[in-house]
Specification:
The complex is a heterodimer of chains A (56) and B (963). Chain A has one domain. In chain A, 30% of the residues lie in helices and 14% in strands. Chain A has helices at 13-24, 40-44; strands at residues 6-9, 29-32. A two-stranded parallel ribbon of chain A has the order 1-2. The longest helix of chain A has 12 residues, at 13-24. Chain A is flat, with a radius of gyration of 13 Å. In chain B, the strands form 16 sheets. Chain B has a five-stranded parallel sheet with strand order 11-18-12-13-14. In chain B, strands 28-27-26-32-43 form a five-stranded parallel sheet, with helices on one face. A five-stranded parallel sheet of chain B has the order 34-41-35-36-37. In chain B, strand 26, helix 14 and strand 27 (555-558) form a beta-alpha-beta unit. The longest helix of chain B has 20 residues, at 497-516. The chains are: A alpha+beta (56), B alpha/beta (963). At the A-B interface, strand 1, helix 1, strand 2 and helix 2 of A face helix 1, strand 1, strand 2, strand 3 and strand 8 of B.
């Protein structure tokens, strides 16, 4: 059985942010994503408003 | 995305689903089923050899079925992890045919057709639900012809069309004939703000801005586009900087904002053009508009599988099918302890808010993980020898067609090979992708590279990614250099490919010249103070302090006035909540006191010294009795959260305010309502007719351009309350912006109660008329030339939120953090750093950042608190080595110019021991901007990583053009 930590369900931008912040605070995180890749909806879009930065 | 993929504390479980959750908060046992990819994640490097030989072509769902992929695939080039997967439903091996082409092609032998699905159990203290949303399928709206008309797409499909890695490679074309459209029409609120079978009652939050962004972007892709129509109900540009972007689109004469919703859309069977039938709500005439392409801005709906997941987790859903919030003022709490919601799980959100909510959820989760920190040993990285002759590797990026569509990248590659010191050059489709990052590491080792140049996009977002890749390969990250051949070549010179290519070569030559002279730099560590200071005792400050205290952090809350609670404590009621503002504040303060947080009121910030991890804040407390002296105290902290709030606009001499006693602001009405007397009295008697005027001090042509975000929803809450008291209410508005959860429903309720909404034009605002009090409102609607005369007994002005001019100016100079054009404090990055500032260790939340409602203020405060504790959870902090330094003390004449011009208090004049003053630069405060180095008259100061020599050589190499 694995050590304790936190579970994050969903690898879109919100889930990634939550997972990264927890991991940066030295907690173990299990990030579960249904599809084959991270990124969620944000990875599908091209540029973001209002700064027009690349979404990836 | 890449960061999450390679963080040592994150175990990535893709292709996986949660199937069982047992236990309770602090002690959950979660069973996860890992569905089989049939490709071993551990050995797949994403080389694409398998997909090249796969004979099966199926639609790519990532492109919403518009593009194609093989049965063995990765959904998009920058996917992380890069591991391929086999779609067993499409794979021939499932049938009686035996193909196995991929297995033969795979050199690493990772393909296993018998790989079983696996179940694994994890013990966790808390759970974050970030399951997002799906796009509404508009096929049910038969009058729009989606799926029947070839050139009608949804908003997300259009995103894929615009995307460089999308089905058309980023060329803006219409599906029927792959021709570039001349006219594009966007239809807003498809499936949103709808009743019955036509969709969902709520507003989808992001689609207005998404359409505005895409209208501008479409014109960048194809400057020949003649017309873009946007059919809308209300334009909802409520976030920071959004109204400004809306104005930019409105200024474009080719982008036409057309109020109304099309009745039907028909396809011309021959040309496949589309005819849009719409009643002009201003002129009441039905018009017929031809368009080459129609984009339906489809609603966001609860993600597939939400019902199942809710059952597994044991949490409730709300009426719309999103996860239910326990408390309307907090998006984070689900109906079960230890399970938190973020992103669009509780209701739709945009990217900025999703990011802040992600940080806020992390904070809440960490409250349940006390004593569970993992300590990792430093990974063993074999350092690369960097002495001796530079061996430079150059990597040229296509960025799909973003660069390669204009710049001749092959000739840039060839050219780079000829440059001195270059020993390896290659070209990649997306250099930032997971696979290419691994390739970069391999190439560094293979060719013994000791300098790396990437010619791609902007270092602002991508330099840290490549630097980390260098570090992992054993190369000092400061031996990396970037040439921005996207922004500076393919974007700005899109119409001149040859010149763009020449310029790309120039930039690569300059980058290589600088790389040749780069030197390795080491980061320095300083200790981190674990205390956190929160400045401002309104709802944001209290929320931040409370969550920090619950987590067990040492927190001090400082408030300028003698009372905590800010504006919220005056509120009579909150939208969709039973609580009054006063009760909300009281509950939070009781909790805060129980947690023994230190609270200091009547204190002003007098001085701020130090830097991240080591701030020293001097406060001055007002004397408790008259005649006594003010007391000063110095507080130490590792991080500081600014939650100083905003002011309300004073509508001096506008709409009769100050002249007529029965014209009041929305806040003044709220104070009357808070008295909770039997019935509302204005100027001594109960009013029969009350009018609200929206956007007073907001969305101005000259003055405050921004939308104040909170006022439409507050006006509707107040209008409902008045209407329930039998008062006739009319709301004069420009766009009704009810985007929060439950707000659109409240808007509908208000109309049901007889509240009348009248739209006014920016150029023809309502006029308040009267002698000694307001008795009438006159309105002329310009387009329809309709005039209204409305008798009133009271007028309520919904006023803007504005920066606290004096306080903000003082804080700006104390903390050295910038403010935007709107006067509010500026965040680090509008999408990815909404609660951070440019000064590390200083965070921003609530209305000091931009106007916000209560729930928005709370989660931004929780996000800021979360970010602050990531810092203070460490016992030390690494300092950025790219700073200025006094390179030659003998040259310093102690003129003090550097001290005067530095924005960050970096340089100081100190006695070198013999009474002679010299400059010394505090590396922890220095931001490495180089201003002091540029101003230093003797050349005593230099900037590390941007030395004179490194800059000179770039300039020299720019001027030497030998081809």
């Amino acid at each position: 059985m694995a050590k304790k930590g936190a579970l994050v369900i969903g690898g879109g931008v919100a889930g990634i942010q939550a997972a990264l912040d927890l991991a940066d605070s030295d907690f173990q995180v299990y990030l579960v994503e249904r599809s084959s890749t991270l990124g969620g909806r944000m990875a599908q879009i091209d540029k973001t408003f209002p700064s027009m930065d690349c979404a990836i | 995305m890449l960061d999450a993929g390679r963080h040592p504390n994150i175990e990535l479980l893709t292709y996986s689903e949660v199937v069982r959750v047992e236990g309770e908060c602090g002690n959950f046992t979660v069973t996860v089923r890992k569905n089989s990819r049939f490709v071993d994640e551990k050995c797949c490097v994403g080389c694409d050899e398998c997909a090249k030989v796969c004979p099966v072509i199926v639609p790519n769902l990532f492109d919403l079925g518009m593009g194609a992929r093989k049965a063995i695939y990765t959904p998009f080039p920058q996917a992380s992890p890069r591991t391929y997967a086999i779609d067993r439903d499409a794979c021939l091996n499932k049938t009686i045919l035996v193909c196995e082409n991929c297995a033969r092609a795979c050199k690493a032998k990772c393909i296993d057709f018998d790989m079983p699905a696996k179940e694994e159990q994890f013990h966790v203290g808390a759970i974050v639900v970030a399951t997002g949303f799906d796009e509404y399928d508009p096929r049910g709206l038969t009058n729009y012809g989606y799926a029947r008309h070839e050139n009608t797409l949804t908003g997300l499909e259009f995103e894929r069309i615009l995307n460089a890695s999308g089905p058309s490679g980023g060329r803006l074309v219409r599906p029927a004939d792959m021709k570039t459209p001349k006219t594009i029409s966007f239809v807003q609120c498809v499936g949103s703000r709808s009743v019955g079978e036509r969709g969902y009652p709520y507003c989808s939050y992001f689609c207005c801005m998404n359409t505005i962004k895409n209208s501008l972007l479409a014109k960048v892709h194809e400057p020949d586009i003649e017309k873009i129509y946007i059919f809308y109900n209300d334009i909802r540009a409520f976030g920071k900087g959004y109204e400004e972007l809306y104005l930019r689109a409105k200024e474009d004469k080719d982008v036409i904002f057309y109020k109304g919703k099309p009745a039907k859309i028909e396809e011309d069977p021959k040309t496949k053009d589309l005819w849009i039938y719409i009643e002009n709500t201003d002129t009441k005439v039905v018009e017929k508009i031809r368009s080459d392409m129609v984009i339906l801005s489809s609603a966001g709906v609860p993600a597939e599988g939400t019902v199942k997941l809710a059952r597994i987790l044991g949490v409730e859903l709300d009426q719309s099918g999103f996860f239910k919030q326990r408390d309307p003022t907090s998006f984070l709490e689900s109906t079960k302890d230890g399970i938190y919601l973020c992103g669009s799980a509780a209701g739709l959100k945009d990217i900025t808010d999703s990011v802040a909510l992600g940080s806020a959820a992390a904070l809440k989760v960490s409250e349940h993980l006390k004593g569970q920190r993992v300590k990792r040993e430093e990974e063993k990285i074999v350092p690369i020898e960097t002495d001796g002759q530079p061996r430079i590797g150059v990597f040229v990026c296509h960025c799909g067609i973003n660069i390669a569509g204009v710049v001749d990248v092959a000739s840039v590659e060839e050219y780079a090979k000829s440059l001195p010191g270059v020993v390896h050059v290659s070209r990649e489709l997306f250099t930032c992708s997971d696979g290419t990052q691994r390739l970069l590491q391999e190439k560094i080792k293979e060719h013994n590279l000791n300098r790396v140049v990437v010619a791609a996009c902007t270092p602002r977002t991508h330099e840290p990614i490549f630097q980390e890749t260098c570090r992992l390969a054993g190369l000092n990250p400061y031996l990396f250099e970037m040439a921005n051949i996207r922004d500076q070549c393919s974007w700005v010179h899109a119409a001149e490919p040859e010149a763009a290519t020449l310029k790309a070569k120039d930039l690569v030559r300059m980058a290589v010249a600088r790389a040749y002279r780069l030197e390795p730099l080491e980061t320095r560590q300083v200790p981190m103070d674990s205390k956190i200071i929160v400045i401002g005792g309104g709802i944001a400050g209290i929320s931040a302090a409370l969550d920090l205290a619950i987590k067990g952090e040492k927190v001090t809350l400082i408030e300028k006035s003698d009372q905590l609670g800010g504006r919220v404590k005056e509120l009579a009621g909150l939208l969709n909540s039973e609580l009054t503002g006063k009760e909300l504040i009281k509950n939070k303060l009781e909790e805060l006191k129980k947690r023994k947080a230190k609270i200091i009121t009547q204190a002003k910030i007098k001085e701020v010294k130090g830097f991240v991890g080591n701030f020293e804040v001097t406060i001055e407390k007002s004397p408790s009795e008259k005649g006594k002296k003010a007391k000063r105290e110095m507080l130490k902290a590792g991080a500081i959260i600014l939650a100083v709030g905003s002011d309300l606009y004073v509508p001096k001499d506008k709409f009769g305010y100050g002249k007529f006693p029965n014209v009041l602001t929305n806040m003044e009405l709220e104070e009357l309502l808070a008295k909770k007397t039997q019935e509302l009295k204005i100027s001594g008697k109960k009013p029969q007719h009350v009018a609200f005027i929206q956007c007073v001090g907001s969305r101005e042509k000259e003055g405050n351009q921004y939308c104040s975000r909170y006022c439409c929803q507050v006006a509707i809450k107040q209008a409902i309350e008045l209407a329930k008291q039998g008062i006739h209410v009319t709301v004069f508005y420009r766009d009704i912006r009810t985007f929060d959860k439950g707000a659109e429903e409240a808007y509908r309720e208000a109309r049901g109660l007889g509240v009348v909404f009248l739209k006014y034009d920016e150029d023809s605002p309502p006029e308040v008329i009267g002698k000694d009090k307001a008795t009438e409102i006159k309105l002329t609607q310009l387009l329809s030339k309709t005039e209204f005369d409305l008798p009133v007994d009271a007028v309520v002005l919904s006023v803007a939120m504005v920066p606290k001019e004096e306080d903000f100016a003082e804080l700006q100079s104390l903390f050295k953090i910038p403010r935007g054009l709107d006067g509010f404090f500026l965040e680090r990055h509008s999408k990815l750093g909404p609660v951070e500032t440019n000064t590390s260790g200083i965070f921003i939340s609530g209305c000091a950042h931009s106007p916000k409602g209560i729930a928005d203020s709370i989660f931004s405060a929780q996000g800021a608190a979360g970010k602050a504790c990531i810092l203070t959870s460490k016992d030390h902090i690494n300092l950025e080595p790219v700073v200025c330094q006094v390179v030659d003390k003998e040259l310093c004449r102690a003129c003090g110019i550097c001290v005067k011009i530095c924005e960050f208090n970096g340089p100081q004049l100190v006695d070198r021991g013999d009474g002679v003053l010299v400059c010394e630069i505090n590396e922890a405060l220095c931001k490495g901007c180089g201003t002091c180095a540029a101003y230093c008259p003797t050349g005593a100061i230099g900037a590390r990583h941007f030395t004179d020599e490194q800059i000179d050589v770039m300039v020299d190499s720019l001027l030497v053009w030998d081809k």
